[in-house]
Each structure stands twice: as structure tokens, then as C-alpha cells.
Amino acid sequence: MDRFQSSAAAPAIYAVGSHLPAMNTAVGRALLACFSERKVIARLMPRQGRLGEFNQPGIVRLLQRLSVVRGQGWDFNRNETRPGYSALATALADSERREQFGLCLSFVNAGDKGAFPTDKLAGLQSATRMIAQRIYQ
């Protein structure tokens, strides 16, 4: 897809120049999942020392979630930055160039809070594959 046109207004989900901790956003966790647990701890908590000594509940939960993200290849966050808006994200990594970049789809929540947007996941996965093919040709 080169361009998508819609008659609906698309509000900005993130304010220009806003900074959010990577571990609190779907795209941030997708990017963090590109790194090993040891590197995640080193990036987020550089003074913690060796992995074996580390046992803070927040980072332990994050590492568990990153393990799931690595396995499925994406992350989802309902009401990520504003009530009523969700984000679905994935990341691509180029080990030769040592680069990672994230792709994030932000959208208005469906009325049913329990419903997962499988149609949006399929679209994000398709776009990710297309971008990866163009980049890694």
C-alpha cells in the first residue's frame, strides 16, 4: 500500500515532542524485544549489576512480557496514550547494520473491551512483511 485515503479525521495520538518510557508503549516493548534480557536491563537500569542479582518486580514482569512479544512478533496496548485509543506494534531489526525500527498502528478502540482487533493485526503483519521485503532485498 502506497497511500491510504479516508474521509475520517485522524487525531494525533502522541503530542509532538512527547516522550514516553519505552516499556510503557507497544512500539517501545516491540523494540525492546529486539534485545536480550541482559541488554534490556542494562538500558533501563544501568546500575543494577549482574542479571542474577536483579529481582525488581516491575522489570521482571517487563521481561516476561518481552518474552511473549518475541514469541508472537508484536505487542498490543489498549488505552495506550489516551482513553479510547489502542496501539498495535511490531519491530524490524537489521543485525548487519545494527538498526531496529518500530511500526505502530494506533486506532480507536472497538466498543467491546474484550475484543482483540485481529483484522488490524493482519494488516500490520502484512505491512511489516512488505516493508521488510523492500528493505532487505
Low-confidence segments: none
- The neighbouring-strand order within the major sheet is 1-2-3
Mean pLDDT: 78
* Oligomeric state of shown chains: single chain
Along the chain, the helix and strand elements come as: HHHEEEH
Distance between the termini: 18 Å
* CA gyration radius, whole angstroms: 16 Å
Q: Percent of residues in helical segments?
A: 25-40%
Q: Shape from CA axes? A: globular
Summarize the biggest pleated sheet: 3 strands, antiparallel
- Total count of helical runs of at least 4 residues: 4
The proportion of residues in beta strands is 15-25%
Number of strands: 3
Structural class per helix/strand content?
A: alpha+beta
Describe this structure in words.
The chain is α+β, with helices and mostly antiparallel strands. The protein has four helices and three strands, in the order H-H-H-E-E-E-H. The protein has helices at 26-32, 37-44, 57-72, 118-135; strands at 75-77, 85-94, 99-108. It has a three-stranded antiparallel sheet, with helices on both faces. The model has no long low-confidence stretch (mean pLDDT 78).
Q: Which keywords apply here?
A:
137 residues, alpha+beta, three-stranded antiparallel beta sheet, 4 helices, 36% helix
At a glance:
The chain has 137 residues and is α+β, with helices and mostly antiparallel strands.
Please give the structural blueprint.
Layout: H1 26-32, H2 37-44, H3 57-72, E1 75-77, E2 85-94, E3 99-108, H4 118-135
